[in-house]
TrEMBL record:
One of its GO terms (molecular function) is metal ion binding. InterPro entries: Isochorismatase-like_dom (IPR000868), Isochorismatase-like_sf (IPR036380), Isochorismatase_Nicotinamidase (IPR052347). Keywords: Hydrolase, Metal-binding, Pyridine nucleotide biosynthesis. One of its GO terms (biological process) is pyridine nucleotide biosynthetic process. Its EC number is 3.5.1.19. This is nicotinamidase. Residues 11-187 form the Isochorismatase-like domain. Pathway: Cofactor biosynthesis; nicotinate biosynthesis; nicotinate from nicotinamide: step 1/1.
Amino acid sequence: MRQIALTRGDALLVVDIQNDFLPGGSVAVPEGDHVIAPADQLIRLYHEHGFPLFFTRCWHPPGHCSFQERGGPWAPHCIAHTHGAAFPDALQVPEDAAIISKATGRDEDAYSGFRGTALAEQLRAHGVQRLAVLGLATDFCVLNTVSDALATGFRVMVVQDAVRAVDANPGDGERALALMAERGALLVHSRPASLLNEA
Ligand code: VGL
């Protein structure tokens, strides 16, 4: 698998690493906590070298349409301003990182960080051309965010060791990775990542 070599126009997109998607959370993704260490390493690298960082988060009101009580598929999760919606303490979120809240309306769902947000405009404003994407969950929010990023014209690297899947049906995560690759994403590994020297 390829490694990351950072170059002009790069940004890091951290998808939904929130307490409710980690072990002990209401929609715990198996091994969800395993993404934190590689995420942290890349957050440091991108930040140290002045590349922009974007963090998406599910930010639902109580009674959100995706919750089982409303006929949706999920247990209540990531309710705005609760511990479950917060980023885990172990994840460092730099002060200047952009935080994109999604699915904030009661009747509005969004797996993709691009749906109902200004993410595309914010990326363009920063001159971003290529995203490294990591986080949770491979078969839901990562898949949908990456697919929209590609459709919007960004180049995308998926950091394969820094994503984990819900895997409600065995193999969903693997199929999502294959689909993202088919749609044009490059599958990469978090290590060793480096800075490309520009001429
Ligand atoms: C997600 C389930 C429900 C995700 C969000 O972040 O992939 N999964 N809401």
